[in-house]
């Protein structure tokens, strides 16, 4: 019996070429919910599989490279993740929030890989044993009205001084637009703990921001 198109799918290409699936013409899935897209993927739809890759790979790569400076390990883990997803698609459960699921899966896979490479990263998200690096982009500034250069520098400095998990939670919230429940799923925490993390981080940044605004106003008089 000839193999189906899904079975013939060349997964080695995924491993050989990180961008093999990039295809901007996937508008047919734009109006579907995550659960509907996931259902089609589980049934063996190559188009759904390609759409998942196209839609989420950039966010996954950005997230992974904020968790580690080892970009090669980040790419390998993303490649492995998508290969495993396809191979195990029939055994996967139902998913309501695909990006949160993928981020969580990648996070665990990357931490395991880095641990195997004897990097000093903990697989336990409750332990601040890893260094989450993030740089605020112009589009994702936590405080939208910071326009002065001094203002941005002080805010970035304050952001970098936040504990690792607070920075990670803010990155997921404001860069990936995840809800507190989705962040909780990604970071293996409960929603209230995530809310507390974000609240404490923003409270600290607001204090720094207020001081900076007063200082800038004084210096410009």
UniProtKB/TrEMBL annotation:
<dbReference type="GO" id="GO:0016987">
    <property type="term" value="F:sigma factor activity"/>
</dbReference>
<feature type="domain" description="RNA polymerase sigma factor 70 region 4 type 2">
    <location>
        <begin position="153"/>
        <end position="205"/>
    </location>
</feature>
<protein>
    <submittedName>
        <fullName>RNA polymerase sigma factor</fullName>
    </submittedName>
</protein>
<dbReference type="Pfam" id="PF04542">
    <property type="entry name" value="Sigma70_r2"/>
</dbReference>
<dbReference type="InterPro" id="IPR039425">
    <property type="entry name" value="RNA_pol_sigma-70-like"/>
</dbReference>
<dbReference type="Pfam" id="PF08281">
    <property type="entry name" value="Sigma70_r4_2"/>
</dbReference>
<dbReference type="InterPro" id="IPR013249">
    <property type="entry name" value="RNA_pol_sigma70_r4_t2"/>
</dbReference>
<keyword id="KW-0805">Transcription regulation</keyword>
<feature type="domain" description="RNA polymerase sigma-70 region 2">
    <location>
        <begin position="52"/>
        <end position="118"/>
    </location>
</feature>
<dbReference type="InterPro" id="IPR007627">
    <property type="entry name" value="RNA_pol_sigma70_r2"/>
</dbReference>
<comment type="similarity">
    <text>Belongs to the sigma-70 factor family. ECF subfamily.</text>
</comment>
<dbReference type="InterPro" id="IPR014284">
    <property type="entry name" value="RNA_pol_sigma-70_dom"/>
</dbReference>
<keyword id="KW-0804">Transcription</keyword>
<keyword id="KW-0731">Sigma factor</keyword>
<dbReference type="InterPro" id="IPR013324">
    <property type="entry name" value="RNA_pol_sigma_r3/r4-like"/>
</dbReference>
<dbReference type="GO" id="GO:0006352">
    <property type="term" value="P:DNA-templated transcription initiation"/>
</dbReference>
<dbReference type="GO" id="GO:0003677">
    <property type="term" value="F:DNA binding"/>
</dbReference>
<dbReference type="InterPro" id="IPR036388">
    <property type="entry name" value="WH-like_DNA-bd_sf"/>
</dbReference>
<dbReference type="InterPro" id="IPR013325">
    <property type="entry name" value="RNA_pol_sigma_r2"/>
</dbReference>
């Amino acid at each position: 019996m000839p193999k189906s198109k899904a079975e013939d799918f060349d997964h080695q290409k995924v491993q050989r070429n990180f961008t093999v699936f990039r295809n901007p013409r996937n508008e047919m899935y734009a109006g579907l919910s995550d659960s509907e897209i996931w259902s089609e993927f589980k049934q063996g739809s190559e188009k759904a599989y390609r759409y998942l890759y196209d839609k989420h790979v950039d966010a996954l790569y950005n997230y992974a490279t904020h968790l580690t400076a080892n970009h090669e390990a980040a790419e390998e883990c993303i490649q492995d993740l998508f290969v495993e997803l396809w191979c195990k698609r029939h055994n996967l459960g139902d998913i309501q929030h695909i990006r949160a699921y993928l981020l969580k899966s990648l996070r665990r896979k990357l931490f395991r890989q880095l641990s195997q490479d004897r990097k000093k990263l903990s697989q336990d998200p409750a332990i601040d044993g890893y260094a989450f690096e993030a740089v605020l982009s112009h589009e994702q500034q936590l405080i939208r009205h910071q326009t002065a250069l001094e203002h941005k520098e002080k805010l970035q400095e304050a952001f970098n001084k936040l504990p690792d998990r607070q920075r990670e939670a803010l990155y997921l919230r404001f860069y990936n637009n995840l809800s507190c429940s989705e962040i909780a799923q990604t970071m293996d925490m409960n929603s209230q703990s995530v809310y507390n993390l974000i609240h404490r981080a923003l409270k600290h940044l607001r204090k720094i921001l207020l001081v900076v605004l007063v200082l800038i106003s004084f210096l410009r008089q």
